[in-house]
Amino acid sequence: MGDMKQQLLQWIEEDRDKLIGFYSQFVATPSPNPPGDTRDAVAHISKFLHEHELNFRLVDPEPMFPNVVASFDGDGDGKHLVLNGHIDVFPAADEGWQHGGPWSGAVADGAVWGRGSADMKCGTSTSIFTYMYLHRIKELLKGKLTLTCVSDEETFGPWGARYLVDNLPEVHGDCCLNGEPSSPYSIRFGEKGPWWVSFRIRTRGAHGAYVHAGGSASWAAMAFCNDLKAVEAIDTPAPHNVGQALEEAREETDRAMGKGASDIVQKVTLNIGRMDAGLKVNMVPDECVIEADMRLPVGCEKEQVQKVIDEVLARHPDVEMEEINYTAPSWCDPYGEMVTHLQNNVETLRGFRPTPVISLGGTDARLWRYLGIGAYVYGPSPEGMGQRDEHVPVDDFLHTVKSHVLSAYDYLTNG
Ligand SMILES: [Zn+2]
To answer: Which domains does the chain carry?
Structure first.
């Protein structure tokens, strides 16, 4: 490892308390979404940037959801790296937490605890410190580094990264690095696309003893759902070199996302998330509303799935379909330059090479991939994300910081 990279690691070691302090205080500043008011958490970031004399601006098309954007040029032409993380977190119930509740930010048992510690204030803190360290040596870098800390991610809302990517072309760059939870053993280069739809089934209904009198919406719904499982049989081959990467990643995919994940990563899945029918036990329901959550693998077009749904609908004329939300799947090169930098640096730091994988869940990284820009997610373990007692071991946080700092450095010095 070169002298400069040694120096960067030394700074991180010396700043250990400062790093943990910033991260812990960030978690202790609530920013649940909904409602999504991130202004206090943004103030925490702004204060840090001010103290380190780093210029930035707030982009707040909706004042409750400000985004932090900062940028600097290196010495001479080169590539443009964009660091991205979100500030908002899932909501949390106050009860049942160890270490003082969801907004404690407690540093205890070797970890930082609280809602958002994993998703994703670990990763966003990482982006902020990466920006700070590389700014310190900017005359040694080529190209440009941009920091984007966004609001409004948890609900796929319009005021965060979506706003930036649509309205500020200067945040596009050549590559995006994001610290969402991935597990230290994997790098996420793509993600499945959720498609949520509702189906409404109307029938005549009847008195519960008069089942012969009219159709039952609940039975019709169950028959419909069974037929709808046909979407899971759609053939969805992986595009380009993704198939090879997925094959190589089978073991790691199961390790990071649970056994069986590798079997569904390249398949359409169907979850019937809600079924709502009937008014009373002794009535035959005349209406049932189903909400289905389908996840489309990369390379799969919505139209392919719609065609199969249409065939099913043709056999169930009482059923009406309505879209709730659609987010297309996304992917980029599983063997891209940033992957190599992360793998090499993690190998030096920890002795193993993280595997490129596709994620089952969604992140803002997709927005860069939609534009054809490589966007990679490397962060702490996703375990406990969104649950009570969400936490990240301090060592995993520091590992994430080191990996990002060294890989961003390599990217901005690699001709
Ligand atoms: Zn997240």
So the answer is: 3-191+329-413 (3.40.630.10), 193-241+262-326 (3.30.70.360)
